[in-house]
Structures are given as C-alpha cells and as structure tokens.
C-alpha cells in the first residue's frame, strides 16, 4: 500500500481548491472524487455569484475548470468514495468502495452535505430546471415569477423571505399545520405580503412542461383531496445531511453531524485531519466560501507536514 502525503476526499469547490493549493505546494495530492463528482454545483445551471465570471458560468463548467487546474499542478484523481477510515494512528488508512485502501500522512475531508429531497415524481428530473435547493444561488433567476418553498423550519422561512425580493408571489408548502421555525422567523414570513400559505399539505409530484416546472401537486392531509399549485420554481428547504457517516464517530461533529473545526484554522480534533467546505459549514453553504475554506485546509496541511502547525483543540468551534 503506497503512502501519500495528503489525500483529499471530495471534489466540490472546497476539495478542488484544496487540491490546487496542495498540488502547487508539491504535495502531490490524491483526490477521491466521491459519490457526486463536482459536488452540488454540477446540478446548477448558471452560476452568477462566483467571482471572476462577469457573464456567469455553468456549474459543471466551473467544476471542470477547477479540476483541470488541479491536474495541471500535479493532483491525481481517483474514482470512488471513502467507505471507512482508520484515524487511530498515522499514516491514516482510507478505504475506497470497501475494496481499495489508501495511506496518507494528512487527510482533508471535503465530502460536503447533501440536500434532503422530497423524493417525489418529477423532482430529480427538474433539478437545475426549476427545482432548486439554494435560494441564494438561484433566486435571481425567478425575478417576477411565482415560486414555492417547501419546508417549515427557520431555513425555509429565511429562504422564502429572501426570495420575495425577486418573486412576484410565493407560497410556502408544509406537510404539517404548524411550523417548526422560531417565532421571530414565522412572524417575519407571515408579515410579508408576498407570501401565501399551504399548510398541512403533502407534496406528491412536480409538474413540468417543455423542461420547465409548471406546478406542484399536493394532497390536503385533512380531506385527502389533491390539487396543483401553479409555479415557475420550486425551492426545497427541508435541511441538509453532512456526509460524515463513513467517519464512524472518529472525528468530532456537532449534533447534526457537521465536522467541528478549530475556529482559527481547519483542524479537527484529530491531529493531521482537516476539514473544509459544506461538511463543516452549515451556515453559508456557498461555492465561494467553500473554496476559501479549501484554501485554508491546504495551507494548514502544508504547515502540518513541515512540522510548523500547532494543533490546539481548545480553540474548537463547539
């Protein structure tokens, strides 16, 4: 089993930025592509808020460009995903697809967080064509259009309020007759004249025509009757799941599963293991913040391998 200086898990903007910086530092990183090569941005059509692209860029093109940039400096990419790790001693052991094992002096975890979906007919087919999981990313594309937000928590209320800056009208759909959101977030949404409510409604299908979303079919939980709420866009805001199960509790996480890092850098509770991107950021979840954290992780790894990194877990973000 060949030993590598650094292994990077994940190829979203965080992992690819870490790969670029690590490769330029002559660390010859091995980058494991993961279950979703390129991350969630590959499901986005046009990105207009990533710096440097005045006319926007397709999410898949941005990820492809970043990968080629990392390869140019010497990063090596491997198919597959990490199914387990042994972080009890160095070098670390990373098992891919339950078959192949890699050995690494340092590990960067950038496996991201997957948006929870409704898993209803028509949803997956329309991702990036009217179905979205990120209001900040895609809200602008629905200027003066009708949109629906599905969810009842703080994130759903926040996204709905944000989307009213663009949408002509907005409906919040929630499967219960009460919301989980905090009182202040509920009041903010209820006081917004653009927001309508469809509570105690269960989404059952996304409707579309000519590759455009046209409506959301819902079932009234009290009467059992179904109807279609016409819309131009559907934002699913029912939470995210950080991709950390493969760690089997070896790395400190919060109660939801997001990796906890030192507030001054990207270090985890295990010396030599670093984290970046959405797997440790439940708040911003933006491509540019993920990329910035990938830069930090690679620079921290470089110092760690040089013996110049101070691991102080007392400054963790707990």
Describe the structure using short key phrases.
7-stranded mixed β-sheet; 5-stranded parallel β-sheet; 19 strands; alpha/beta; 318 residues; FAD/NAD(P)-binding domain; 2 domains
Can you tell me the number of structural domains? 2
Largest sheet: 7 strands, mixed
Distance between the termini: 36 Å
Which series of helices and strands comes N to C? EHEEEHEEEEEEHEHEHEEEEEEEH
> Mind telling me which CATH architecture of the largest domain this is?
3-Layer(bba) Sandwich
Structural class: alpha/beta
- CATH homologous superfamily of the largest domain? FAD/NAD(P)-binding domain
Anisotropy-based shape:
elongated
Kindly provide the radius of gyration, computed on alpha-carbon positions and rounded to a whole number of angstroms: 21 Å
Helix coverage percent: 10-25%
Summary, kept brief:
Helices cover 21% and strands 29% of the residues. With 318 residues, the protein is an alpha/beta fold. It has 2 domains: 3-114 and 240-315, FAD/NAD(P)-binding domain; 117-236, FAD/NAD(P)-binding domain (3-Layer(bba) Sandwich), CATH 3.50.50.60.
Describe the structure.
There is one protein chain. The chain has two domains: 188 residues, FAD/NAD(P)-binding domain, CATH 3.50.50; 120 residues, FAD/NAD(P)-binding domain. The protein has six helices and 19 strands. Strands 1, 2, 5, 6, 7, 8 and 19 form a seven-stranded mixed sheet that branches. It is elongated and about 65 Å long. The model has no long low-confidence stretch (mean pLDDT 92).
């Amino acid at each position: 089993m060949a030993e590598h200086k650094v292994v990077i898990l994940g190829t979203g903007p965080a992992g690819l930025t870490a790969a670029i910086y690590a490769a330029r530092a002559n660390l010859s990183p091995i980058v494991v592509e993961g279950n979703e090569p390129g991350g969630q941005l590959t499901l986005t059509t046009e990105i207009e808020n990533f710096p440097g692209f005045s006319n926007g860029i397709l999410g898949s093109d941005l990820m492809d460009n970043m990968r080629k940039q990392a390869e140019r400096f010497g990063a090596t990419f491997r198919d597959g995903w990490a199914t387990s790790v042994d972080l009890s001693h160095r070098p670390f052991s990373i098992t891919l697809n339950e078959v192949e094992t890699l050995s690494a002096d340092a590990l960067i975890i950038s496996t991201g967080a997957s948006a929870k979906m409704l898993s209803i007919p028509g949803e997956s087919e329309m991702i990036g064509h009217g179905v979205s999981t990120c209001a900040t990313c895609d809200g602008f594309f629905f200027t003066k259009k009708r949109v629906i937000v599905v969810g009842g928590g703080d994130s759903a209320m926040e996204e709905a309020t944000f989307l009213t800056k663009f949408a002509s009208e907005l409906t919040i759909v929630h499967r219960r007759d009460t919301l989980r959101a905090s009182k202040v977030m509920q009041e903010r949404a209820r006081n917004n004249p653009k927001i309508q409510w469809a509570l105690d409604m269960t989404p059952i299908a996304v409707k579309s025509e000519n590759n455009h979303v046209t409506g959301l079919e819902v079932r009234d939980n009290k009467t059992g009757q179904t109807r279609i709420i016409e819309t131009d866009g559907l934002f699913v805001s029912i939470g995210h799941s950080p991709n950390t199960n493969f760690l089997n509790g070896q790395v400190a996480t919060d109660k939801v599963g997001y990796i906890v890092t030192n507030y001054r850098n990207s270090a985890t509770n295990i010396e030599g293991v670093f984290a970046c991107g959405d797997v440790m950021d439940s708040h911003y979840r933006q491509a540019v913040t993920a990329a910035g954290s990938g830069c930090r992780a690679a620079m921290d790894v470089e110092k760690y391998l040089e013996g110049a990194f101070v691991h102080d877990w007392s400054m963790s973000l707990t």
